[in-house]
Design brief:
The chain has a 5-stranded antiparallel beta sheet with strand order 4-3-2-1-5, covered by helices on one side. It is 55% helix and 24% strand. It has 2 helices and 5 strands; from the N terminus they run H-E-E-E-E-E-H. By secondary structure, it is α+β, with helices and mostly antiparallel strands. It has a domain at 48-120: SH3 type barrels, CATH 2.30.30.
Length: 121
């Protein structure tokens, strides 16, 4: 009888450890791993932003990217053609991406605008 009591107590100790390992594995595969995957996708999306992309910020501002630097973006907001400088981390989603042809047209348009501004001065 004494032997049975020791075996039952030892099994319950191991079952507690096994249960903790199973719970950790469940949390990892159900919560931690999907969140890391989502963060990686968002980081890739923000890293791939180009001039001409239409974006929505996390604050709800909709605009078109007109300048991209390492940490910031310049957005052109449709109302009044205003330009806003925002941090890249503030981009929530990309509405539409530009094709290579559209990007070249936008670059030419920006160069023309800069030249016109220089001529006006």
């Amino acid at each position: 009888m004494n032997l049975f009591a020791l075996t039952a107590g030892g099994a319950s100790a191991y079952s507690g450890i096994i249960m903790m390992v199973v719970m950790f594995a469940l949390f990892y595969f159900m919560l931690i791993r999907p969140q890391k995957k989502k963060d990686k996708e968002i980081k890739a999306m923000r890293g791939a932003l180009k001039i001409g992309d239409s974006v929505v910020t996390i604050g709800g501002v909709v605009g078109k990217v007109v300048k991209v630097s390492d940490e910031t973006l310049d957005l052109e907001v449709p109302f009044g053609k205003q330009r806003l400088t925002i941090q890249k981390w503030a981009v929530g989603s990309v509405i539409s991406k530009t094709s290579a042809k559209e990007e070249k047209k936008e670059d030419k348009k920006d160069v023309k605008e800069i030249e016109e501004k220089k001529e006006d001065k």
